[in-house]
Design a protein that fits this description.
This protein is of the alpha+beta class and 203 residues long. The chain has helices at residues 14-25, 46-61, 124-137, 190-196, and strands spanning 30-34, 37-41, 69-73, 76-78, 86-87, 91-95, 107-108, 113-119, 142-147, 152-160, 163-170, 175-177, 187-189. The strands form 4 sheets. A 6-stranded mixed sheet has the order 3-6-8-9-10-11. Strands 5-4-7 form a 3-stranded mixed sheet, with no helix packed on it.
Length: 203
């Protein structure tokens, strides 16, 4: 069960209003506010979606989508880095009571997030830089990045300030067991995940 959420004052949110307008005008796009900047990501390609589905399987097999935790796609995480900052991870592992920790604008307090995961697209630098700082600042215990650009799987743990003290990149051929903070044994086959996310022209 999660700790109590931190209440935020509800005030005029010009960036949030503009982000919501952009989402309404561009269905399928992901709109986030990180570091006071609006970031717009195009809809994911097919291999991105396949990799994401394949990634869900080990979490489901480990029993993490049940009474204690939930495996969810595309829910907002309210960030402490700015008054309007929020991110929308590709995949999250959250406490089962996450809906009790709704912050605002369809986002939830970071206290209920055990893990966030991103599969990179054309804006891979955001996942590898800006979101590292954002998720560390939010004290998300585990951040996993499937880096399709450089063919690596990154596991970041031990958030401290705006960085993770432990950052381990993994290459094809490795098998990675995620940290115990996720709540069960989750094993990822790096080669299989990266292969699933590879566009046909890259195969």
């Amino acid at each position: 069960m999660s700790a109590a959420s931190v209440e935020r004052p509800h005030e005029h949110r010009p960036l949030t209003a503009e982000a919501n307008r952009l989402m309404d005008r561009n269905p399928g796009y992901r709109v986030e506010i990180i570091g006071g900047q609006i970031l717009v990501s195009p809809p994911p390609d097919g291999p991105h979606a396949v990799a994401l589905t394949d990634l869900m399987v080990p979490f489901l097999t480990a029993g993490l989508h049940g009474t204690e935790s939930r495996v969810v796609q595309g829910i907002g995480l309210w960030l402490p880095t700015g008054t309007e900052d929020y991110a929308i991870p590709d995949l999250s592992l959250v406490d089962a009571d996450f809906q009790d920790h709704h912050a605002e604008n369809n986002c939830y307090d970071p206290v209920c997030f055990r893990l966030v995961l991103e599969v990179t697209s054309s804006n891979y630098r955001t996942d590898l830089r800006d979101k590292v700082k954002a998720y560390a600042s939010a004290k998300v215990p585990v951040y996993v990045i499937v880096d399709r650009k450089h063919q690596r799987l990154h596991v970041l743990t031990e958030p401290a300030g705006d960085e993770y003290e432990n950052h381990r990149p993994h290459s094809p051929g490795e098998v990675v067991t995620l940290p115990e903070e996720v709540g069960a044994e989750v094993i990822l086959n790096v080669e299989q995940i990266l292969k699933a996310g590879r566009r046909s022209a890259e195969s």
